[in-house]
Amino acid sequence: SMNSAHTDPRILRGMTAQRELRQGRLNAGEKLIGWKVGFGAPAAMERLKIDAPLVGFLTDGALVRSGATISFAGWTKPAAEPEIAVYMGSDLLDTSNRATIQSAIASIGPAIELADINVPPEDVEAILSGNIYNRHVILGQTDPSRAGCVLDGLVGHIHRNGMEVASTTDPQASTGDLIDIVRHVADLLAAVGERLRAGEVIITGSIVPPLWIASEEEIRFTLDPIDTISINLTPTASA
Questions:
Q1: pLDDT per position as a tens digit, 153-179
Q2: How far, CA to CA in Å, does 102 sit from each of 83, 92, 133, 191, 225?
Q3: What pLDDT digit, counting tens, does each position of 41-72 carry?
Q4: Residue 196 phi/psi, 5° resolution?
Q5: Is the Cβ–Cβ distance between 203 and 85 less than 8 Å?
Q6: What is the pTM assigned to this prediction?
Q7: How many CB atoms lie within 10 A of CB 230?
């Protein structure tokens, strides 16, 4: 049962503050492109005393093209997270059965999220208020032959400065079941008067432990056989 996510006062207060942050960005001309989840790994949920991942938003203002260079000057604790992006083909109103959720998913592809852990990762309300640390997202090509969130045969490879540092053949091991994640996002949005809509993307959580960034480097994520995306990170303030 996901009820406690909708009744946990920390989550309701945090989501209210997050909505104000989002509205400010939309008022400034950014467009909503989708949603992100965080803290979905079992150990993280236990530590925060939550029974489902936390949910945040993504705007086109956070979107960065693959291969770009991003400065993390002034960030507190930068991290890069390789994730699976799930793209919605239709609005999801009924989450009562798995097949309905699957039929709403049009395709999947790779994503890299850049985050800055700038408030304690124990304070649920503060984490939500700041949109779960999101700074940027890089999205790759998508594979519509994997509509319904077909993960068979996917392998994730993560490279730092050309050296492979992690790989996984089970992309749900760290995130939990992706269909359940989509259901939770739809249910939580419905509980706060929103809707999960066609055309939106959900980045579903890091498939490996976060990569902590301290110096200049290139992070590359291959979600084989779909696509490879990369981002260059620099501690130098951008010109």
A1: 999 999 999 999 999 999 999 898 999
A2: 19, 10, 28, 21, 21
A3: 888 899 999 988 999 999 999 999 999 999 99
A4: -80, 120
A5: yes
A6: 0.95
A7: 16
